[in-house]
Amino acid sequence: MTTATDVEKKKPLAGLSDSGAYQKLLAFASLIALLIGFSIASPNFMQTSNMIAILQATSVNGVLAVAATLVIITGGIDLSVGTLMTFCAVIAGVVLTYLGMPLLLGVAAAIAAGAFCGLCSGTFVAKMKIPPFIATLGMMLILKGLSLVISGTRPIYFNDTPGFDQISRGSLIGEIFPALPIPNGVLILFLVAIAASYILSRTVLGRYTFALGSNEEAVRLSGVNTDAWKMRIYALAGAICGIGGILIASRLNSAQPALGLGYELEAIAAVVIGGTSLSGGRGTILGTLIGALIMAVLTNGLRVLSVAQEWQTVVTGAIIILAVYADMARRKKSG
Amino acid sequence: MGGNMTKLVDMTGIEKYFPGVHALKTVQFDLFSGEVHALMGENGAGKSTLMKILSGIYQRDGGDLVIEGKSVSPTTPGEAQDLGIGIIHQELSLMNDLTVAQNIFIGREPRKSFGRLDEAALNAQTAEIFASMNLSLDPKTLVGSLTIAKQQMVEIAKALSYRSKVLIMDEPTAALNDAEIAELFVIIRRLKAEGVGIVYISHKMDELKQIADRVTVMRDGEYVGTVGAAETPISQIIAMMVGREVNEKPLDVPDLGDAEVSLEVSGLNRGKEIKDVSFSVQKGEILGFAGLMGAGRTEVARAIFGADVKDSGTIRVHGHEVSIKSPKDAVRAGIGYLSEDRKHFGLATGMNVRDNIALASMDLFTGTGGVLNDGEISTTAKGYIAQLGIRTPSDVQEVRLLSGGNQQKVVIAKWLLRDCDILIFDEPTRGIDVGAKSEIYKLLEELAEQGKTIIVISSELPEIMRLSHRIAVMCEGRLTGILPGGKDTTQEDIMHLATQRAAAMQVTGAPQ
Predict the structure, then answer these.
(1) Confidence of residue B196 (pLDDT cuts 50, 70, 90)
(2) For residue A318, how many other CB atoms are within 10 A of its CB?
(3) How far is B225 from chain A (nearest CA, A)?
(4) Per the CB < 8 Å rule, is A204 touching B19?
(5) Which residues, other chains included, contact A175 with Cβ-Cβ below 8 Å and sequence gap of 6+?
(6) Of the candidates A165, B38, B83, B304, which lies 20 to 30 Å from A152 by C-alpha distance?
(7) What is the mean pLDDT of residues A276-293?
(8) Cα(B423)–Cα(B453) distance, integer angstroms
(9) Which chain B residues contact residue A12 at CB under 8 A?
(10) Does A127 touch chain B (CB under 8 A)?
(11) Is B401 within 8 Å of chain A by CB?
(12) Calculated CA dihedral for residues B316, B318, B319, B321, nearest 10 degrees
């Protein structure tokens, strides 16, 4: 049959361009190019300590970006990941420092708070049909305000909870391989990424995440309770933001209630650089990780080269536009 | 046709390559002023690609394009417009929230000093164009409030406002009912008389006889031939398109006797769209739903399926009353709905074949912790690919790369897997080419023979007549009658019921 051979002919091409492999490759190549460029430009760049600093800097943004990726693949957007992170950190502070509960309970409370807030966003979006941009913009402000209210606008320190700072700063890997003192925060980022990646590729939740972003109405007409699944995805993203909250609180050994605004944009930037489509239906966690690394390498490298902070921001913005342009150009080509 | 017609377009030896595909192979096409030249071919034959080259959307890789004696190579739609070539796309590209006039003059609005818009001139110029088309439409109407037919007229007006000498219409009647098609043809004939050359792309054979002067057929990116529309029998054109004769066997209506009534709908109401609709379907039966566009057939299907909430009415499946409030409830009751708009409602086009097949039945493949068994999904999907003859290189091919007919089969597979024994097909062959149509028909008949209950909604009367064991006809939300299938019923009988309006209102030409 003619149609069959037509499709067959297209296959090898389609396989390459549709898997998003190209975009990932491009992002990965950019990352390598940046690393090489900065190493040549400054001998201080390729130091183990500096590399570890980059990874450490990636950990929080990376975790938030993973959360944002899930929501973005459904065709939504989550603007609340930054302030939700802060809110969860404050909750951990309340449970651990104010209430003096054990460490594990504080961590659990932060993640539960994240999941609950995510569920709220998900309810606004799925049940009340508020556009994700508005729903999560509202959540972003609510959570920022609540963080300040609960903490009394003062940082909450974790000095009474020994070991809390080790969650992010300690290094289990370093204890086993002293030459590789990779902080636990980085380890946690990778664990979160692997888990999210697994959920996306192997579970019903993941399959529906892509399906919702691909064609929500078709999924609904297949008899799937799309609202419920969407709420679950937002809740999962929220829980991951809770982990982000623990990481940042642990790194600063305090919950800083004023922090958080602006993190959501960095997270979304990492997602976009990593090749996830803002229109939904496509995206990978690996791409997001690479995107987060690119942003961290860029910030760090420019600092090592003593480029002024103001200019670092300008460069980051330019990179985002470039990355999306490259993605668009590729898409247009593969038609 | 007189000999005083000038050649507007002459395309010869056109070649076009896409990565990995030789899309057009030495294709030729010409167009005279004052003629309607139909371009036919199955989906994927290269019609759209050829027209996109003519309208500056694609660039050719070889061959000549001559417009009014001059060799040209438009590289943008704007350049093609300057050459007098206008295209009306199949999917209308209008902005619903702007007025008709604002749409027509988008990007070249009449201006006053300091860049202020001259709305008065805008509306006046639009009114002028409408007058020349003999179309009564207020330039200040919002496009979103118009019917598809009227929107189509706006597209035509837009193309004309560029003083187009060549007008390309890509399936202009796809969403129009008979009255609206007649309206469109009046305008086409008027344009013809004024010397505009029209390229007419359509799948509907009967339209050719009415409107086209010549027909060019393409197949697999190649030029097959050009024939006169009046003197060439339709069967020959179809044979040119598919490269073989398509034989339609006459319908024989099976005697179902006292087979179980599997679906019984009574007193179904929803707003103004559905008024007291009751009917029943037997196991193994194909019930056709005929009617004009807007008669409420799709609305009935969506209400039964729970996609829209009904105001009242009961639905019995296999004799038991079921409460259907959402598609989920319907699917649980064994009802599957195959929407007319597969791309919007039927398929997750970015996903692959097997995930689409499994989409309604993920729970069958879910292990502990929500982990999916992809191996089992694959095996199951491959089974359906073989059973339904879905032509795809593999089960992980993205469905958007499949042809319309094969996409439809993927949706069918989805519902079969979900164990739905009542299947509602809404325009099952829309956008599907002639060859694949009869395959879908055969599939529906096989499903009925296997004891599935089939409801088919179609705007194409030949399709209804070809398939239905019984024919339910609707008009303005009411069920106006149920006719027996087979040769006892004529198209006239159906049309009679389809136009049997509740109030004896007269159709007027005025816009609503």
Answers:
(1) very high
(2) 10
(3) 19
(4) no
(5) none
(6) A165
(7) 90
(8) 6
(9) 20
(10) no
(11) yes
(12) -30
In angstroms, the CA B379 to CA A270 distance is 37
The DSSP code for B171 is: S
Q: Show residues of chain B in contact with A213, CB under 8 Å.
A: 350
CB B19 within 8 A of CB A13: yes
Q: Which two tokens stand for residue A103?
A: 């460490």
pLDDT, tens digit (0-9, with 9 covering 90-100), for B242-259: 775 555 556 778 888 888
What integer pLDDT is reported at residue B431 of this predicted model?
A: 72
Above 60 in pLDDT, residue A14? Answer: no
Does A2 fall in a domain? Answer: no
Instruction: Mean pLDDT check: name the lowest of A62-66, A119-123, B133-137.
Output: B133-137
pLDDT in tens, B328-362: 999 999 999 988 777 677 788 788 999 999 998 98
Is residue A156 domain-resident? yes
| B401 vs A contacts (CB less than 8 Å) | 7, 10, 14
Query: Which stretch of DSSP H or E encloses residue B318?
Result: none
- Does any CB of chain B come closer than 8 Å to the CB of residue A36? no
Contact present, B80 and B60 (Cβ < 8 Å): no
As a whole number of angstroms, the distance between CA A196 and CA A179 comes to 29
Residue A7: is its pLDDT beyond 70? Answer: no
Chain-chain contact of A7 with B392 (C-beta, under 8 angstroms): yes
Query: Which residue in chain B has the smallest CA separation from A226?
Result: B328
DSSP at B295? S
| Most A-contacting residue of B372, B385, B422 (CB-CB within 10 A), to test interface | B372
CA B394 to chain centre: 27
Using CA coordinates, name the residue in chain A closest to B365. A204
pLDDT tens per residue across span B462-476: 888 889 999 999 988
Indicate the CATH number of B260-334+421-502 among 3.40.50.1010, 3.40.50.2300, 1.10.1200.10, 3.40.50.300: 3.40.50.300
- What is the residue range of A84's domain? 20-334
The structural domains of chain B, with segments of one domain joined by +, span: 7-242, 260-334+421-502, 345-420
Residues A271, A293: contact at Cβ < 8 Å? no
Least CB-CB distance to A205: which of B346, B370, B414?
A: B370
Q: Which member of B307, B327, B372 has the closest CB to residue A203?
A: B372
Q: Please classify residue A43 by burial: count the beta carbons closer than 10 Å to its beta carbon, then call 0-12 exposed, 13-18 middle and 19+ buried.
A: exposed
Token duo for residue B177? 């009912």
The DSSP output letter for B400 is: G
Q: Select from B346, B274, B266 the least CA-distant residue to B309.
A: B274
Q: Dig out the tokens for B166 from the structure.
A: 């060549």
**pLDDT per residue as tens digits for the range B114-129:** 777 788 898 999 999 8
CA A297 and chain centroid, separation? 16
Beta strand B312-317 with B222-228 is unpaired
pLDDT over threshold 70, residue B2: no
- Residue A283's closest chain B neighbor by CA? B350
Long-range contacts of A129-137, Cβ-Cβ distance < 8 Å, separation of 24 or more: A132/A71, A132/A76, A132/A77, A132/A78, A133/A77, A133/A79, A136/A71, A136/A76, A136/A77, A136/A78, A136/A79, A136/A80, A137/A79, A137/A80
Residues B160-177: tens digit of each pLDDT:
888 889 999 988 887 777
Q: What is the CA radius of gyration of chain A?
A: 21
CATH of the structural domain B7-242, one choice from 1.10.10.10, 3.30.750.24, 2.40.50.180, 3.40.50.300: 3.40.50.300
Q: Which two tokens stand for residue B268?
A: 């179904």
Give how far B411 is from chain A: nearest CA, Å. 10
Q: What is the number of domains present in chain A?
A: 1
Residue B226 has a CB neighbour count (10 Å cut-off) of 16
Give the phi and the psi of residue A181 in degrees, each rounded to 5. Answer: -80, 60
* Residue B82 scores a pLDDT above 50: yes
